[in-house]
């Protein structure tokens, strides 16, 4: 059952990425959130981390909602730490810094 939920989450995340490519941002956010819920249901730490990270970058670059970007990127980090994924962590911190710059909040 968890495998089916994870597969569904993977499909929803891929659809969200396609939605972004086709500039259907409302559907993209909806599909990212659906994927996130299913990754959480499946207990998939990597999927949770990647989806929060994708949502953060989405809010940063497409929505220009820097507060939401910061929140999603921050939620991704504990899951990235569990994966010991240093490359993704560095990338996450860079995008988080960009969100802070846009909010004029580097304190």
Alpha-carbon distance between the termini?
44 Å
**Given the helix and strand composition, which structural class is it?**
mainly alpha
Instruction: Give the strand content.
Output: under 5%
Spatial extent as radius of gyration: 14 Å
Q: Summarize the biggest pleated sheet.
A: none
Mean pLDDT: 92
Number of helices, where a helix is a run of at least 4 consecutive DSSP H or I residues: 5
Overall helicity:
over 70%
Give the H and E element order. HHHHH
Shape: globular
Low-confidence stretches: none
Number of strands: 0
Helices, strands, pairings?
Blueprint: H1 2-21, H2 25-42, H3 45-63, H4 66-83, H5 86-102
Q: Can you give a write-up of this model?
A:
Helices cover 86% and strands 0% of the residues. By secondary structure, it is an all-alpha fold. Helix 1 (2-21) runs antiparallel to helix 2 and helix 4 (66-83) packs antiparallel against helix 5 (86-102). The protein is globular and about 40 Å long.
Give a short summary of the structure.
The chain has five helices and no strands. It has about 110 residues and is mostly helical.
Which terms would index this structure?
107 residues; mainly alpha
């Amino acid at each position: 059952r968890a495998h089916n939920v994870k597969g569904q989450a993977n499909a929803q995340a891929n659809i969200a990425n396609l939605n972004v490519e086709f500039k259907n941002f409302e559907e993209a956010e909806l599909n990212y959130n659906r994927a996130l819920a299913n990754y959480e249901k499946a207990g998939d730490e990597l999927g949770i981390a990647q989806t929060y990270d994708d949502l953060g970058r989405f809010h940063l670059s497409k929505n220009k909602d820097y507060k939401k970007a910061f929140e999603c990127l921050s939620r991704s980090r504990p899951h990235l730490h569990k994966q010991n994924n240093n490359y993704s962590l560095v990338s996450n911190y860079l995008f988080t810094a960009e969100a802070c710059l846009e909010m004029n909040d580097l304190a």
